[in-house]
Each structure stands twice: as C-alpha cells, then as structure tokens.
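Action item from last week, closing it out:
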Amino acid sequence: MFLALNALGAPLTRAASIVAPFPGDPDYIAQGTMVGAKTGPHRSTFTTRYQGEPAVASRPLSVHPQSTLNGDLSGNHAAKLGPKSLPPIYGGYTAVVYGMKEPAPFTTRSQFQDGPSRRNDFVNLNVYLESNQPQPAGLEFSFTGAFLFPAGESGTPAIVPLETITNVMFFVASQRTPARLSRVLVRDADSGDYYVSDYHESENKAVIALAGAKWAKINPTDLTIAGDYLPAAFQRVDHIGVYSTIPVTELAEPLPTFGVICNVAVHSFEYTLSR
C-alpha cells in the first residue's frame, strides 16, 4: 500500500474543512436573539381548528424538487446574497394543539426573512392563532419541526460519508419555550430514509459532535414517530439539517389577536468534515 509523505517523511494529512449548506450572517443575531424571526414571505400555509379534541396540523418531510419549503426563493441561490438567494430548504412539521380555553383555528406556515439588504436569510416554522379574538392563558400545544438542506456548499447536491462528519453547528431559536431540543437530521443517500441523532442541544447556538452518535429512523409523514436509537445502519448522506422538538407546553400568558403560538427558526447551518 502506498502512503503519501511530506518533505520531512511524515504522513500527509488533510485539514478539516467546513461546509455551509445554509450560510448565516451575524447581522441577524443580536446578543443571541434572532432579529425579525416572525416576519417575511411565507409558503406552505395550512389552517385547522381546535374544537375540543387534539387538533393536528402536519406537513410530510420530502426532498422532491417541488416540495421545497421556500419554493421560488430557492432559485439561483449560489451566485448572490439577498432576495431570492436562499438555497433549497426542505422540511416538515407536526403541530398539535391539545387545549384552548376558547376553541379557534390555528395555522402552520413556513416564513422566510428575505429582505432587500445584501445579507443571508433565515427560515421559520410558525404556528399562529388564526383568530381575530384574543386567546386566554392556558393554550396547550406541542411542535416538531424539520429543516433539511442538500449536503453541499450553499445547498448544492453532494453525497457525504457519515463517518467524515465530525461536528454540526447551527443557530436555532424559538420565541417562547425554553424546552426545545434540537438534533441532527440526515437523509440516507442510498435508502432515502430519514434519521435523527440521539445527541441533542437545547441552546440557540448549537455545536453537536457526532462521534459515537446513535440514530433513530423517523416517519416522514408524522415527525413525532421515531424508532430506537441504534448505531448507524447507513454510510452516506445526501441531505443534512435540524430536527427540533417542543414538548407539550402550556402558555402561561394570553395570546393577542393572530398571535404566534410557537416558532422554530434556523439562521445558519454548517458542518465540519474530517477529510
């Protein structure tokens, strides 16, 4: 076997590299708070109504070219920043409202900060009270959301050996709940199945090392359904992203007219390759 050597006779090693499928920009972060996390154009709107039994709003997870959350905003993303520069963003969600003091409709939607400035943008999954009447305190809900990007630089197609992904870094925020957990989400490049890591992070600025991680297969039609965490049964990934869960939560404060029940927003996403 041939071993490459440097001028001193030592084995050559490749430096680790960082890949940014969803590049971020510090202009959007102020002291750990995401700026404008509830604004922007939206896609994928779905409204349902709570009427006394748990009500579910969901969107399956898919990477079909016509299933991007951001639709036309994904075009021509590599050549510029600013409007219409977002890379393709795939995703899904399962939102459940367990109780409202005054039954009303609610809406899930994906929203994008895509203003006229030359800054990179971010994506939100939001659940809104869809009513012109305020809601008293006590609304109960849970939320599971997924964001998935093609694994290459700025969301370009790529297939990456799982064993070479050492660390995953992203900035994720939620308006209200401190109980959010975020995990690494990947798509098996060979089977097309989706897996989430047992390693997780609760802070907004997340760094997750994947050495020794176990993985659970998730149901793309209901993101709350996952298998057991086991050593990886796959070797290559072609999409990578964030899977965030907010457990059953009761709001201690009333909601204003058309108020935000909850949101999960991702500002940036990148990972480190060992080679």
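Closing note: The mean pLDDT is 86.
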